[in-house]
Amino acid sequence: MQVYERENNLTAHTNPFPEILDDNTYTRILKDPNYWISQALEDKIIQQIAMSLDISGILYHVGTEALITNAYDLLPLDDTRIDMVEMIQRLPILIGRLTRVVYLNVKPLSENHFKFVFVYLPEYQEKWYDAVFFQGMLNGLAVLFELKEFKIRMTKTKLFGIHVSHKELGEEIQFGSDANEYELEWKDDVLYLSRSHLTKDNVTSRHRVMVTSRSETELEEMSIVDVRDVVGKSRELAIENRDLEAAVEVLKSFKQELEKKQLSMAKDLRLAKNIQKGLIPEIIPDWNGIQFWTGFSPMQEVSGDYYDYFPYHTDKLGVAVCDVSGHGVPAAFITALSKMLFSNFKKPKPSETFKLINRELLDLVKQQGYTTCVYLLIHSDYKVVYSIAGHPRPILFRHKTGKAEICDGEGTFLGMFPDAGDTYRDLHLQLEPGDKLFLYTDGLTEAENDHGLAFGETKLMHLIEENANASIQETVELIMNHHREFTMGTDAMDDITLLGLQLSPKLEDFRVLQSKGDQVYQKKDYKQATLYYKEAHKILPRELNTQLAYGKALAYSGDYENAVVMLESYNKFKTNHFKSHAILGYCYFRLGLYEKAEVEWKKAYSINDSNLSNLYNLAQLYRKLNQKQKMKDVIDKMKHIEDTYLHILPLEKKWELLPDESI
C-alpha cells in the first residue's frame, strides 16, 4: 500500500480505496504491522492495487522482510546459537503467528534440502499472491543466513495458473495439484544465529539485534546483525530491483518491437536477395570460344554491384559490370532497373546505349541514385567495342607478351547529369587466343588491409601476370582468394565484383572436335559422337551448343545418367529450348523417375505447344502409372489441337483398357 501511495503521488495516508475500507482501517494498516484484517479484505485490497501496479515483485520482497523481521522471535531466549536447519524447523511457528488460514509442514529431503508443504483450511482458497509471498519468505532465510549458492522453487500448487512469470517461481510447476509445495536447497557452509541484547550503537537499546557466527560455540568470526539495517537494505534492494524490472520490461518491449521490425526487414531482404539472385546470372555461358568467370561478394544481403550478359542475335554479345551508389535495397532496386534498360537498349555502340540509359535513369530515379558502368560488345570476330561511365577501366592481359595493361577510357556515371551523354566514347580492342580481359568494381581495388593499405590495381595486375597460364576460372578464383587473405581481419566496406573473360587458346582444337562430333551425329553414330563432344566439352565446358548436342548424343546412346547431368546443366542457363526438356524428360522416364519426367515434358509443352510429341509422352506416362483421368485429359487436349494426329486412336484404345478404379 505504501508503494501504491508513492507510485500514484498520493498525500500521506489518504485512503485511495474508500469503497473497500474506511479511513481509520487504512491508517491502522499502514501504521501497525500487527493489525489483523480478514483474508477477504486482504484479497480486495491486493486485487485493487494489482489492477494498476505489478506487485508480484513487491509481494516477494515483503515476504522476505516478514521473515527477517520476525526471525528474532524464533531464536532461543538465551544466547544459544541455531543453524539454518533448526530455523527451518521453527518456521511453522512463524506461519501460525502470521495467519490462521495456512499451516506449514516441513519435510527434510537431505541435510541441505527441505520441502515446505503449505496446508490451507478447507474453507479457504489459495491465492496467487500467497505463492509469491511464501517464496519471498524462503528467500528471507537465504538473506539471513548469508547463503551464496541456493535454489528456491515451487514444485506443486492447487492453482491452475499464476499471472506472474512461472519461471520466477520454478521451471516445472505442477499446476492443479493436490498440494502447495516448495523446495529449498543450498550448498553454503553452516552459519549460526543467536539473540543479543547489544546494538551496534550502544548497549542500552533493547532493539532486535542478532549475532551471526561460523561456529556453534567459539566467539571468533562473530558479527552483529541489526534487523533494521537488514530490512532497510532489503527495501532499498526491492526498490532498486523493481526499478530495474521496470526498465527491463521497457527494454523487453523495445526489443520485441525491434525484433518484429528486424524479422520484417529480414523477410523483405530475403525476398530482395532472391529477386536479385534471379537478376544476376550465377554463370555466364561460353560464347563463340570465349569463356567467362565471375567473383561476386556482396557486402549485405543485397548488392549494389551488378553484372550481366546480353546476346545480340548470333553475331554479338553485350557484357556489363555496374556499381550503384549506396548499398542495400535502394541500390538493388537500381540494379533491377539497369537489367531492364540494358535489355531494352541493345544499340550497335555502347556509347549510344549509355546515352539512352542515362536519360531513362534520370526520369525514373530523379537523381536519387546513380551507377558507374563498363559495357562492352564482343563481336563474332573477337573485336571488342566498349565504353566507360565513371567506372574503373578494364585490365587486358596479352597472352603473347604475358603483360597486363589498363585500358583507356573515361566518362560520367549514369543517372545524375542530363548532359552526361556527351562524355561517353567508344573504344576498341582486338582479342587474340589466350588473351584475358577483366572488368571489376572499385570495391576490389580500394579494399584495405588491417594496416590501411589498399589492394590496388598494381597488385591486381601482378596476380594476373603471375598466373598467365591459368584458365580464366582459376585466375578469377585465385585473385578473390588473395583478396580475402589481404583483407582478413577487416570489415567489408563495399560490394566486390570481378568478371573475367578469355578467348580460349585451344579454340581451333575445339572447333575441329565439335565439327567431327556433328558429322557422326548426323550419321546417327551417337556413341562416336559422344567421344568427340566429350573432348570439345573439356575445352569449353559452358558452350551451350556443345552441351545440348553432347546431352542428346548421350541420351540416344542409352547413357541416361550422364545425359541427365549434361541436360540439367544446359537448362540452368534458361535457354527455353523445348527439345532439351523433352529429351531430359525421356531420360528421367527411362531411369524410372516419373515425377521428374512429367515436370520436364510439361515444360517442353509450355515452350512449344504445337509439338504434340510432348503430350504423347505424357499420355504414355499416365498410362504406365494407371492414371486414367489424366491420360484422358491429355488425349482430349491433343484432339483439340490436331484431331487427325495419327497417335490419338492407339492411345484411346490403350486408355479404354485401363481399370476405372484408377481414375
TrEMBL record:
<keyword id="KW-0802">TPR repeat</keyword>
<dbReference type="InterPro" id="IPR001932">
    <property type="entry name" value="PPM-type_phosphatase-like_dom"/>
</dbReference>
<dbReference type="InterPro" id="IPR052016">
    <property type="entry name" value="Bact_Sigma-Reg"/>
</dbReference>
<dbReference type="InterPro" id="IPR019734">
    <property type="entry name" value="TPR_rpt"/>
</dbReference>
<feature type="domain" description="PPM-type phosphatase">
    <location>
        <begin position="289"/>
        <end position="503"/>
    </location>
</feature>
<dbReference type="InterPro" id="IPR011990">
    <property type="entry name" value="TPR-like_helical_dom_sf"/>
</dbReference>
<dbReference type="Pfam" id="PF07228">
    <property type="entry name" value="SpoIIE"/>
</dbReference>
<feature type="repeat" description="TPR">
    <location>
        <begin position="578"/>
        <end position="611"/>
    </location>
</feature>
<dbReference type="GO" id="GO:0016791">
    <property type="term" value="F:phosphatase activity"/>
</dbReference>
<protein>
    <submittedName>
        <fullName>Serine/threonine protein phosphatase</fullName>
    </submittedName>
</protein>
<keyword id="KW-0378">Hydrolase</keyword>
<dbReference type="InterPro" id="IPR036457">
    <property type="entry name" value="PPM-type-like_dom_sf"/>
</dbReference>
